[in-house]
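Fold Annotation — chain and its backbone
Next Lines — sequence and tokenised fold

***
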Amino acid sequence: MSALVLALAAGAVVGLALGALGGGGSVLAVPALIYLLGFTPAAATTASLIIVTATSITALYAHARAGAVRWRAGALFAAAGLLPAAAAGGAADRLPQPVLTAAFAAVAALAAVRMLRPGPADSGPAVGDRAVAVRPVKVAGTGAGLGALTGLLGVGGGFLTVPALVTVAAFEMRAAVGTSLLVIAANSLASLATRGATTAGIDWALIAPFTGAAILGAWDGKRLAARVGGTRLKRTFAILLLAVAAFMLVDAVA
């Protein structure tokens, strides 16, 4: 099977997961880039940030049109993560590749466990920048941690950002999903800004179709979730993610 076909297929799966689950699909992008397309871990995390940024901005536009983005609170959350994302992005290519792979495997396992646990239910429609009881210090601390995770491992962190916005910023689920895309896009761009050397070695002939397939797959994922049901999709995806995490961990320590 050609690398182009693999890139299109992997991108479609990543996009489907992002569209159906509102986060977590980007965790599949890094192992797909490493084991299917032959990227090094450092190059894969950089390429993943490109894919995540493009897909998140596209999805953000759709959520913003539906009024499901809280710009002020989301900007505070995102701003706190910009410097940690940039610093972690600059440090990522200096880490030994087995360490980077093992760290990513641990985060993938965490994402899988998080998806297997019952999540908070949607409590209603988002209403612009409606006032909520936001604790700035707690929001900033959480945003900084998620920014560092995005910068280091090249994941959007939607599987952590969404529950963080629900619990820390008291968002309802629909607003949390929409606002998380703003946070993800900002952190990913900040991390990319410090990865100039790694970006120069990216194979755009593979990343461009991968990204395009992910964007298209995200739209189909929303329809798939409506037909199959979010709970079943989450469980299936979580089991797949646990298998990927176990494989990567074995590969890192072998």
